[in-house]
Amino acid sequence: MPLMKPMGQEVSLHVDAPVAAVWALVSDVTRIGEFSPETFEARWTKGSTGPEVGATFAGHVKRNGVGPTYWSPCRVTVCEPERVFEFSVGTDAVSVNNWGYRLDPEDGGTRVTEYFRLQPALAMRVYWLLLGRLRGRTNVNGMRTTLERMRAVLEA
């Protein structure tokens, strides 16, 4: 039986800033509200105070920028300083999707890629089949907005 391909997308752009500066920004979840069109605040939870594998935080989300509004529990799953920062969204028992940033040195600056990947559970496959095109477009636009806002701060 062939493995199912992960469902997700990514957006990349060049930032005229060193990798260390980009890393400091993308791995500080408390600043996401400055950049994301959907997640307007986040805070570390359960005693976590910064980026490391297993650290937890909650993101306060306004779905599609208009609602509903809710808190999403998140857990850092990959934390390779100045390379990759990734987190899962969902409970300890059920992860719905993963979001992350990949950083690559490029032309004296940084190529930063934001991505999302849905878990390949049957319910998510049905969701993606029915709403994936629309939600995927929303996510791509949101990632582009987030990265452009981050670039403006980093290049200022």
How is this structure best described in words?
With 156 residues, this protein is of the alpha+beta class. The mean pLDDT is 90. 27% of the residues lie in helices and 41% in strands.
Distance between the termini: 51 Å
Q: Structural class given helices, strands, pairing?
A: alpha+beta
Compute the gyration radius: what is it? Answer: 15 Å
Percent helix range: 25-40%
Compute the average pLDDT.
90
Largest sheet: spatial strand order: 1-7-6-5-4-3-2
Q: State the total count of DSSP E strands.
A: 7
Number of helices: 2
Beta percentage is 35-45%
Uncertain spans: none
Q: Keyphrases for this structure?
A:
41% strand; 156 residues; 7-stranded antiparallel beta sheet; alpha+beta; 7 strands; globular; 2 helices
